[in-house]
Structure formats: C-alpha cells, structure tokens
C-alpha cells in the first residue's frame, strides 16, 4: 500500500513539473489564462493586476454590497484568478456609486481605499470599436424591446434594488428615439467630461473624453445586437487616444 501511495505522489509531482516546464518553455498552457485575467474589467479601485491577484482574498464582500449586481466572481471556466471579482460590462456595468461601497467593503486592499468617489475610479476606457454597429451613426431609431436584455438580467437577481428600477425606467424612454443612450445614461456626476454625441458627416457618434472612467455602462446599454462601444480594461484615455493616436 505504501508503494502505491508513493507512486501516486511521484506521478502527481512529476506530471505537475512536466506541465509547468511545458508552460515555461512555450508560454502556451497558462499564459492565455493570465492574459484573460489581465483583460478582465475589475471593480472600482482595483490595484494593478499582479498585486490585485495577490491581495484579493476572494471574500465576495464587494459583490454583496453592490446595489446594481455589477460584480461577479470568476469561476473555473474563466481560468486564471478563480474566485476574484470582475465585471462583465455587457451584462451589467458599474454605476459609479457616490460612496463606492465595493471599495469600502474590501478588507484586503485589493480595492484601493483612496478611491472615494466616482471621479477617482479608473477601470478602463470606452472605445467605439465597431462604428458600423452604432445606431446613432446610421440614424437608426432605438428599436422596440431594446432593453429586454437589461430587464431580464435585473429580474434574475434575488433582491432588485430601487436604483436598478430607476435605471430601467430611464432606459425604456429611449425607445423609438435617436440613440444617445451611451452619452445620456453615463452614470458619472459630470458625464460631459466623459462622453458626448457628435456629428461625423453621416449621423452622430459617441466621442470619448479623458473624464471616462471605464465603468462599462455604455457597453451594457448599447442597443445594438452586439455592442458598438466597448471597454478596454486597465487602459487610460492617454494610453488609447493619445499614445495610441486613435480618433
């Protein structure tokens, strides 16, 4: 019996070392998962990714206090960083709560407590990555039932909040109108510092400014079947629009 246990330990040890060696040698096995973690949209106040993964104790406190049900915990299917909080902006963006309760709830420092108000949040940057999908640019009215996906997500939650209901009521009012959702639903206190609608010779399109915090609400609420505007996690306005020379 002892020899069987020893053989099993040796098998696990050398199999693990073999996989690790393959990973280090080729960068194929684990590095894609690490990249996925780097590209996740983290909650407000998240420190740099490497430090975040080291500090986060996977307690879920940030998730529990979020009044918009914006935060999820990564499962095995997400690969690297299992149990860590992230935001899927297409499902539910961050609504930049004035007291930033998720940061206050974090006991480990993975969410920096210097993030005290919406203007302090730096999650990423919004980018009109697929302009041909943009309803405003093609002068297409916001279609009937555009908010069904958002309603369905909200109704699936156990404890829908009044803040969510108020958001849905405002969103429903855009039906049949020219689309300005990404600009008019921006949740930060001074939305014009982050995004506005501008003419581009065809229709109108969202233009992003340096006040954008990367909250993801524009991506969530975009009424196109696939979002025209998306968030680039952990990038700043300078990173994308100035250093990247993007228009």
Automatic annotation (TrEMBL):
Residues covered by the 4Fe-4S ferredoxin-type domain: 43-76, 83-116, 204-234
SUPFAM superfamilies with a match to the protein in the record: 4Fe-4S ferredoxins
Record's keyword annotation contains Membrane: yes
InterPro entries the record matches: 4Fe4S_Fe-S-bd, 4Fe4S_Fe_S_CS, PSI_iron-sulfur_center, TAT_signal, TAT_signal_bac_arc
MF annotations from Gene Ontology: 4 iron, 4 sulfur cluster binding; metal ion binding
Bilayer-crossing regions: 12-35
Keywords: 4Fe-4S, Iron, Iron-sulfur, Membrane, Metal-binding, Molybdenum, Transmembrane, Transmembrane helix
Residues of the signal peptide: none
Highest taxon in the source lineage: Bacteria
Statement: the UniProt record of this protein carries the keyword Metal-binding: yes
Gene3D superfamilies: 3.30.70.20
Protein name: 4Fe-4S dicluster domain-containing protein
